[in-house]
Inverse folding.
């Protein structure tokens, strides 16, 4: 008898929280797990790390970027309730001022095996990397450029991976980047 995916995820998240080397001294203390439909979701979206609002609500993509993600999902008629959303790194990376920063290469590398286990539990048909940090880590390609990767599918670790920009307000306000994200989501719709 197989265990339900939610139970496996909870066990994995417990392991991450018990791993003293996972959270560096320049990360917040609040663990932010993935959220969504673990049992039947055809898609897993991966961001780089939680931000302040995500840390506060203990849920990924609930701030301004989350609103943009919701709009992109609505544009392809894919309800958020039907997907799973997580981050490469599960704690908020902080700069000296206490603001968000991108995870370092070593933080990303350390988090990657846990992310791969999370994806192994979820068994999605497609993984969507929202931003270069997640894409570079998952595809193990530090030279990856968004101009070349946006709306492209890659095969890695037995996964079908689609890459696009992070739906941050900064990216979303630029017509070219917003259009690139919409194109990527249309490609996602085609494969689903």
């Amino acid at each position: 008898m197989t265990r339900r995916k939610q139970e496996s995820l909870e066990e994995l998240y417990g392991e991450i929280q018990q791993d003293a080397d996972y959270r560096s001294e320049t990360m917040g203390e609040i663990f932010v797990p993935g959220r969504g439909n673990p049992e039947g979701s055809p898609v897993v979206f991966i961001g780089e790390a939680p931000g302040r609002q995500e840390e506060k609500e203990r849920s990924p993509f609930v701030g301004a970027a989350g609103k943009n993600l919701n709009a992109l999902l609505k544009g392809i008629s894919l309800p958020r309730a039907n997907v799973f959303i997580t981050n490469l790194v599960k704690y908020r990376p902080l700069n000296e001022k206490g603001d968000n920063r991108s995870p370092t290469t070593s933080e990303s590398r350390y988090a990657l095996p846990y992310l791969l286990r999370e994806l192994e539990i979820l068994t999605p048909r497609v993984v969507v990397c929202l931003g270069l940090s997640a894409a570079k880590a998952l595809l193990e390609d530090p030279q990856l450029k968004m101009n070349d990767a946006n709306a492209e599918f890659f095969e890695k670790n037995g996964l079908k991976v689609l890459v696009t920009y992070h739906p941050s307000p900064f990216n979303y306000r630029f017509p070219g980047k917003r259009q690139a994200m919409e194109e990527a989501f249309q490609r996602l719709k085609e494969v689903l």
Notes: The first strand starts at residue 35 and ends at 36. The mean pLDDT is 94. The chain has one domain: 5-191.
